[in-house]
Each structure stands twice: as C-alpha cells, then as structure tokens.
Amino acid sequence: MTETPLDSAHRSMSDAPEDDRLRLKFFERVADAELFLLLEKEAEGNQIVPRLFDTEEGRFALVFDREHRLAEFAGGISPYAALSGRSLIGMIAGQKIGIGLNLGVAPSSILLPEDAVSWLSAVLKSEPGQIEAAPQELHSPANLPPEVLGALDTKLATAVGLAKSAYLVTAMHDGRGPSHLLAFIDPLPEAASALAQAVSEALVFSGAEDLQIDVAFFASSDPLTPRLAKVGLRFDLPAAEAPLQPFAPGMDTDKPPRLK
Of 73, 91, 125, which residue sits at a domain end? Predict the structure, then answer.
C-alpha cells in the first residue's frame, strides 16, 4: 500500500511522541490535505449531513485521505464530500465534534478530539501584522532558524497564483527596531488575507510561533521592489495554470457547506 503524506506524518509523530515539531507537522498535513467526509446522505445543494459517531471520547465526524479508504470503512460506495482539512476544521470547530481520521483502514488511523479541533481552528484563523508604511531601511534577513525558512518555502509553494514572488528581508521602520518582513510582489487583490495566513501557519507549524514576521504587498513597479530584490531572500510562488473551481461542497473556503 502506498504511504500517503498523512501516513508519513503520522508515522514520524508516533515514532517520536515527545517531539513537538513532528506533532505540529502532522497537524499541518491535516489542515492542508484534501479529505473525504463520510455523509449520511447525498449532498443537497450546499447542504451536507455528516455521519457522526458517538463514542466514550465524544462525537466524531469521519474523514479519509483517499476515496478507497472511505469505501473500505463504509463497506462499499457511500455518499461523501471532498473538502480541504482547513474547511472541515472551520465547519466543525465550536460544535463539540472531533475528527476520526482513517479509522481502521490506514496506518494514520487516529481520533482528534474536540480540543485539538479548537486549537487547530485558532491557528488557522491567526494572521501576522501587515505593514502599510514603507520601511526606511532594508537588509538581508538574519537569525532565522532553517526550519522556519523551510516551512515558508513549503507553504508558499501551495499559494498557487496568489502572487508573483516574495522577498524576505530585515526591515527598519521609524520608531521600531529591526523586524522580519516578507514582501509579496504583485499579489492578487483578494489574496492578502490568504497570504498573511500562510505565513502565520508556517511559523506555528515550524514550532516558531513566538517569532514574528510582518507581511507587506508591493507591485513590481513600486520603487521599493528593486531594493527588496537586491537584499532579500526570494521565494517564487507557482503560477496558476487555469482558474481553480470548487468541485464539491466545502472546497470553497468562503462558502463552507452547511451542517445539519
């Protein structure tokens, strides 16, 4: 059986239960994964009815990271909704529902209780500060742990089509000491919040939640952009090949499916 990214992250976490960094990586994989939510019946428009299971540990919605795993658990073809992990978290947070992931059908079988869902929901809602005024001085970035740079590189690789590139610098502002700044170049008008959230998630899931990185947004034509390119560490964001369309309830994070 082919190991999935969730299987791999779960195995690493299980092999080193005291390693907080590996546990954070597992939660990041849950948030970023496409998941298949088992339903009571076929979706009706934008309304879905998850099949919920009551246990001694609480009530759980069941999700799987592969369609065949859902079918194996259900004993055949069953209604489901495909949605991102972050959409699922947004749907069930605050409803006293946990997540049963790949139960009984994969090495990554695990129960994520309600408090884990609440924590992950809070992480996914957090955003770093956005800088409006141009910094007075720019310098090459310094004193950033390698795991943070790796987390930023991984996270920004998923921000397909949201901006052309980004530069990480050390910035000096009037009245402030030096700070880390990630400047996005030519972002989509509606992408600022998603890009800021991606930076926040990269910090938390790398274990560096106490580190602060501000974000800012500039056009290629801005006079500051050449200065950013001269001293900054560049990240290239993948270009979108075609407009992405939601294909099932829950894929549009602005319009999550309604639960019954």
Answer: 125
Tokens, residue 102: 């790949």
Residues for the chain: how many in total? 260
We report the CATH number of the domain holding residue 151 as: 3.30.70.1350
| CA pair distance 258, 235, nearest whole angstrom | 37
pLDDT in tens, the chain (260 residues): 689 999 999 999 999 988 988 999 999 999 989 999 999 988 887 788 899 999 988 999 999 999 999 999 999 989 999 999 989 999 999 999 999 999 999 999 999 999 999 999 988 887 666 666 678 889 999 888 898 999 999 889 988 999 999 999 999 877 677 889 999 999 998 998 889 988 988 988 888 877 889 899 999 999 999 999 999 999 999 987 654 444 343 444 444 444 33
User: 0.85 cut: is pTM over it?
Assistant: no
Radius of gyration of the chain (CA): 20
Q: Which residue has the tokens 């801005």?
A: 222
Domain around 93? 5-125
Would you tell me how many other CB atoms lie within 10 Å of the CB of residue 254?
7
Contact 89, 121 (CB under 8 A): yes
